[in-house]
Automatic annotation (TrEMBL), chain A:
Protein name: Nitrate transporter
Listed Pfam families: MFS_1
Lineage per the UniProt record: Eukaryota, Viridiplantae, Streptophyta, Embryophyta, Bryophyta
Membrane topology category: Multi-pass membrane protein
PROSITE patterns: MFS
Automatic annotation (TrEMBL), chain B:
InterPro entries in alphabetical order: Transptr_NO3_Nar2
Signal peptide: 1-26
GO cellular component: a single term: plasma membrane
Short name of any one Pfam family annotated for the protein: NAR2
Record protein name field: High-affinity nitrate transporter
Family per record: Belongs to the NAR2 family.
Function: Involved in nitrate transport.
TM segment ranges: 176-195
Keyword vocabulary terms for this entry: Cell membrane, Membrane, Nitrate assimilation, Signal, Transmembrane, Transmembrane helix
Molecular function as annotated in GO: nitrate transmembrane transporter activity
One BP annotation, GO: response to nitrate
Length: 519, 206
C-alpha cells in the first residue's frame, strides 16, 4: 500500500541483503549471514542472551568446589540458586519499558555492562551471604531475554517471527548448557596449567564470564542497530505517527486477561523447570553417580545444549500444527509436549543407573524446551495492545516458577534431589492441566469450539475504547487481527492474509459498530 | 513422527529395565569391620590438636594393631574424616554403612605397608582441604583393595575431633583485577553513551 511521502529531501532507499516488507522487516532468515541490520541484530541478540546465561549459571558446575571453600550447607546452596533466578523477575518487567524508551541496543548493552561488576565480584566472596548476594545480582542479566525478543521482533516480519524468536531464545538458552562444560574446563586450566590451589582456581574462572560481558556489550554497542532503518534515537523524530500508548491502559489489559496468568504458570513450569534443572543437574550427577567435576559438567551440559534445536523445533511444531488445526492444535501440542516433559522428569528421578539417567535427561530436556518454544507460539496472540507487557509477565512467570520449585523441592535437606525431581515432575503434570482453561472466543480452546459470534477483529479491537477507535488508534491491532485469521486452521497458504496482500483496508471495514468485548 | 515416538518409548523401556538391574557386587559394611586398629592424631610434638591451618601445619598420625588375630591386610590407608558437626545439612558428606557409598572420609593422608608393629606418618595438610571438624580413620586393606579392618581417633565422631582452618583462595591481585575491570566496564559504557550523544548533536548541528 503505497503512501506518497511528502519529503523535501529525497532520501535514498536503503539496500538490504534480505527481502523486506514495507516496514523494512526481513521476510526470511539467512542464518550464516552477519549482514546489517537484520541478521546482525539476530546474532547480536542471541549472543548477548547467551552470555547472560553463561554468567548466571557459571556457579552451579563449580558448586562442589565452592561449597567446600565457603562452607555452604544445602540450604545455603538452595537459597543462592533461588536468588539467581528471582533477581530477574523485576528486571524482566522493567526491560520492556527500557526497550521502549531507549531501544533494545542500549537496553541490552546497559544491562550486560553494568552487570559485569557483579560477575567479577563472585571472585571475592567469602561466605554464604556473599555468595547469595552475588548470584542474585548476576541473575538480573537474564532480562536480556526481553531485549532479545524485542530486537528480533523489530527486525523480522510476523510470519517468521516465531522461528526467529525461537532461534534467538533457544540459542541464548544454550548458554546454560555451554557453561556447564566451559566453567569446569576453565577451572581445570587454572588448577593444573597455572598451578593454583582449587580455592583460587574457581575464583579465577569467573573472569571468563565477566570479560565476556564486557566484550559482548561493546560489540552490541558498536555493531548493533535498533531498527532496520537506523537507531532508536534517530527514529524518535520520525515517530510522529506512532502512538505512545498509556502504560496504565496497556498494563490493565495484560493483567485482567486470565490467559496471561495461565501462561504465567505454564511458562513457570516449562522455562522455570529448565532454569531449576540448570541449577541442580551438575551437582546431582556429581553426587549421585560419583563422577568427577568435568564429567558431571559435560553430562549436565547436554541438558542445556539440546536448546540448539529443541526450542526452535517447539515453535516450528506449533506453527505446523496451527496450519492444519489452528489455535486449538497449538494448545494440544503444548499440552502434549509439557506433559511428556513432566513424565520424563519423574522417570529421571527414578533412574539409579547412569546411562538410563542420561537418556531420560536428554528426552526430558527436548520435551521441556520444545514446550517453551510452543508457549511463545501462543503468547503473541493473547493481546495485541499489551503484547510487550504480556511477554514480560510470561517471562517473569518462568522465573517465579523456578523460584517456587527450587524452594519447595531442592532446598530442604529432608529429601534427596532425586525425590525432588519426582515431585517436580508431578507438579509439571498438574500445572499443565491448566491449558484446558485457555479459551480464545474466536478460535476455541482444547475441548471447546469457537464462539460463532466473535471474530478476530472483535477480539483484538475490543481492547480499545470507542473513543480511541474513533481516533484510529486501533488500526495496528486491526492489521494484526486480519493476519491472525490463519489461527483458524485448515488454511492453504494462498488464502492466508499477507500484510502486503489483499486484506481489506482499515477504511473499508469502517469505524462503526465495535462492540466492547471482555476477554 | 509416529516411528520416532515408538523408538523413544522402546528406548525408555530398555533404559528402565537396565536401571532396575541390580549391581551384583560384594558390599563391605563399616559396621561389620573388626575395629582392630588403634589410631591417634596429634601435633608433631605430641600435643593434642586444637586448630590447624592447611598449607602450613602438619599433624602426626599413628596407628597400631590391638589384636593378636591374623588380619589378611597388605596396606593401611589413613584418611581424614568429617566429624558429625561438619556433616549436618551436607548430604554430599553423608555416612553410609556400605563403604562404596560412604562419603565420611574424603581426604587421603597416606598409604603404608601393613605391619603388626604399627606405623606413623607426619602429614602436611593440603591446601584443597575445606574448613571443617575432622578426625582420623585408618583402614587395613587386602591385596584386592577391600577393607578388612578399621580404627579411628574419635570414638563417636564427636569427641576428640580437631578443627582445620582452610585457605580463603583470595589474593590481593584478584581483588585489584576485579576493581579495574569493573571500573572499565561501567566507564566504557557511559563513555560510549556520552560520545554517541555528542556525535549525534554534532551531526544534527551540521
Amino acid at each position: 500500500m503505497e503512501v506518497p511521502m511528502p519529503s523535501a529531501k529525497l532520501v535514498e532507499q536503503p539496500v538490504f541483503s534480505l527481502p523486506v516488507d514495507s516496514e523494512h522487516k526481513a521476510k526470511s532468515i539467512q542464518i550464516f549471514s552477519f549482514a546489517q541490520p537484520h541478521m546482525r541484530a539476530l546474532h547480536l541478540s542471541w549472543i548477548s542472551f547467551f552470555t547472560c546465561f553463561l554468567s548466571t549459571f557459571a556457579a552451579p558446575p563449580l558448586i562442589p568446589i565452592i561449597r567446600d571453600n565457603l562452607n555452604l550447607t544445602k540450604t545455603d546452596i538452595g537459597q543462592a540458586s533461588i536468588a539467581s533466578v528471582s533477581g530477574s523477575i523485576m528486571s524482566r518487567l522493567m526491560m520492556g519499558t527500557v526497550c521502549d524508551l531507549v531501544g533494545p541496543r542500549y537496553g541490552s548493552a546497559f544491562l550486560i555492562m553494568i552487570n559485569a561488576p557483579a560477575v567479577f565480584s563472585m571472585s571475592l566472596v567469602d561466605d554464604a551471604e556473599g555468595f547469595l548476594i552475588c548470584r542474585f545480582f548476576i541473575g538480573f542479566s537474564l532480562a536480556t531475554f526481553v531485549s532479545c525478543e524485542f530486537w528480533v521482533s523489530n527486525m523480522f516480519t510476523t510470519k517468521i517471527m516465531g522461528t526467529a524468536n525461537g532461534i534467538a531464545a533457544g540459542w541464548g538458552n544454550l548458554g546454560g548448557g555451554a557453561t556447564q562444560i566451559i566453567m569446569p574446563l576453565v577451572f581445570h586450566l587454572m588448577l593444573h596449567s597455572f598451578h593454583n590451589p582449587a580455592f583460587t582456581a574457581w575464583r579465577l574462572s569467573f573472569f571468563l564470564p565477566g570479560t565476556a560481558h564486557i566484550v559482548v556489550g561493546l560489540l552490541v554497542l558498536c555493531l548493533g542497530q535498533d531498527l532496520p532503518d537506523g537507531n532508536h534515537s534517530t527514529q524518535l523524530q520520525k515517530q510522529g505517527g506512532d502512538v505512545k500508548d498509556g502504560f496504565n491502559k496497556v498494563l490493565y489489559f495484560a493483567v485482567t486477561s486470565p490467559k496471561t496468568w495461565i501462561f504465567f504458570i505454564l511458562y513457570g513450569y516449562s522455562f522455570g523447570v529448565e532454569l531449576t534443572v540448570d541449577n541442580i543437574i551438575a551437582e546431582y550427577f556429581y553426587d549421585r553417580f560419583d563422577l568427577n567435576l568435568n564429567t558431571a559438567g559435560t553430562i549436565a551440559s547436554a541438558f542445556g545444549l539440546m536448546n540448539i534445536v529443541s526450542r526452535p523445533a517447539g515453535g516450528y511444531l506449533s506453527d505446523c500444527v496451527a496450519r492444519r488445526f489452528g489455535m486449538r492444535g497449538r494448545l494440544w501440542i503444548l499440552w502434549t509436549l509439557q506433559s511428556l516433559g513432566g513424565l520424563l522428569c519423574i522417570v529421571l528421578g527414578l533412574m539409579s543407573d547412569l546411562t538410563a539417567a542420561i537418556v531420560a535427561m536428554i528426552f526430558f530436556s527436548i520435551c521441556v524446551q520444545a514446550a517453551c518454544g510452543a508457549v511463545f507460539g501462543i503468547v503473541p496472540f493473547i493481546s495485541r495492545r499489551s503484547l510487550g507487557v504480556v511477554i514480560g509477565l510470561t517471562a517473569c512467570g518462568g522465573n517465579v516458577g523456578s523460584v517456587l520449585t527450587q524452594a519447595l523441592f531442592f532446598t530442604s535437606s529432608s529429601y534427596h534431589t532425586e525425590t525432588g525431581l519426582i515431585y517436580m515432575g508431578v507438579m509439571i503434570l498438574c500445572c499443565t492441566l491448566l491449558i484446558i482453561a485457555v479459551y480464545f472466543p474466536q478460535w476455541g480452546g482444547m475441548f471447546f469450539p469457537p464462539s460463532k459470534s466473535v471474530s478476530e477483529e472483535d477480539y483484538y479491537v475490543s481492547e480499545w475504547t470507542a473513543q480511541e477507535q474513533e481516533q484510529g488508534l486501533h488500526l495496528a491491532s486491526l492489521k494484526f487481527a486480519v493476519n491472525a485469521r490463519s489461527e483458524r486452521g485448515g488454511y492453504c497458504s494462498s488464502s492466508s492474509a499477507d500484510p502486503e496482500g489483499d486484506h481489506p483496508t482499515a477504511d473499508g471495514l469502517g469505524l462503526s459498530m465495535w462492540k466492547s468485548y471482555s476477554h | 513422527m509416529d516411528f520416532s515416538r515408538k523408538l523413544s518409548v522402546a528406548l525408555l523401556i530398555a533404559a528402565a529395565i537396565l536401571g532396575l538391574a541390580s549391581h551384583a557386587e560384594g558390599q563391605v559394611l563399616f559396621s561389620k569391620l573388626p575395629k582392630s586398629l588403634v589410631v591417634t592424631a596429634t601435633l608433631p610434638d605430641g600435643k593434642p590438636i586444637g586448630v590447624v591451618k592447611t598449607g602450613e601445619d602438619s599433624i602426626l598420625v599413628k596407628w597400631a594393631v590391638n589384636t593378636s588375630a591374623q588380619i589378611p591386610a597388605s596396606k593401611v590407608k589413613t584418611k581424614l574424616c568429617f566429624a558429625v558437626e561438619s556433616q549436618l545439612l551436607r548430604g554430599w558428606r553423608a555416612t553410609k554403612d556400605d563403604l562404596k557409598k560412604d562419603k565420611t572420609c574424603l581426604y587421603n593422608i597416606a598409604t603404608q605397608d601393613y605391619t603388626t608393629a604399627g606405623g606413623e606418618v607426619t602429614y602436611m595438610l593440603a591446601k584443597s582441604i575445606p574448613g571443617a571438624k575432622y578426625f582420623v580413620r585408618a583402614y587395613a586393606v587386602n591385596a584386592d583393595g577391600v577393607q578388612v579392618a578399621t580404627g579411628q581417633s574419635s570414638p563417636n565422631k564427636v569427641a576428640n575431633t580437631f578443627t582445620v582452618i582452610p585457605i580463603s583462595g583470595r589474593h590481593a591481585s584478584i581483588d585489584i583485577a576485579v576493581g579495574v575491570l569493573s571500573v572499565f566496564s561501567v566507564g566504557s559504557l557511559f563513555g560510549f553513551f556520552i560520545l554517541e550523544r555528542i556525535y549525534l548533536k554534532r551531526k544534527k548541528g551540521v
